[in-house]
Amino acid sequence: MATRWTVTIDCARPVELAGFWALALGYVERPAPAGFGSWEEWFAHHGVPEEEWDEGAYLSDPDQAGPAISFLRVPEPKVAKNRLHLDVQVGGGRETPWETRWPRVVAAVERLTAAGASVIREEALDGRPDHMVMADPEGNEFCLL
User: Fold this and answer.
1) Could you tell me the mean pLDDT of each successive run of 10 residues in the chain, 145 residues long?
2) Predicted structure pTM score
3) 122 contact partners, CB below 8 Å, separation of at least 6
């Protein structure tokens, strides 16, 4: 049996960054744990000080297929290239024909740059564009395929 896991992203502005990634991935705000009407109720029940309630944000896959994502406020800024990044397969991945996949990638680049992402570079394979290396609003790298 596989072990459940989540992705945690350290950041300066958890709620804003979670909003960007919800748009990028089609994720939704993660519901409060069972038995609680809200995250605030859960925090209070577990004795989390009120001044810490906005130090995180949580997303989940609405289809329950992908991992949950947590965004946690940290005091230090990002200072180096990610050693781990997401490949967001907006075009369907490399098994999708290029003529179908690449226009989807271009459309996603436009949508995500409008939401605060930046393009780092376009990568080519066999003489034509293959994927885009991008950064989210806080500089975390990811690829669009």
Assistant:
1) 90 96 96 91 93 90 94 92 92 94 98 98 95 97 96
2) 0.88
3) 129, 131, 132, 133
Exposure on the CB side of residue 124, measured as CA atoms within 13 A:
3
Domain ranges of the chain: 6-73, 86-144
Q: Are 59 and 69 in contact (CB under 8 A)?
A: yes
In the DSSP assignment, the letter for residue 63 is T
Per-residue DSSP letter, 120: E
Pick the CATH number of 86-144 from 1.10.60, 1.10.287, 3.30.720, 3.40.50: 3.30.720
Name the residue with tokens 């949508």: 111
What DSSP string describes 34-56? TT-SSHHHHHHHTT--GGGTTSE
**8 A C-beta contact, residue 120 and residue 133:** yes
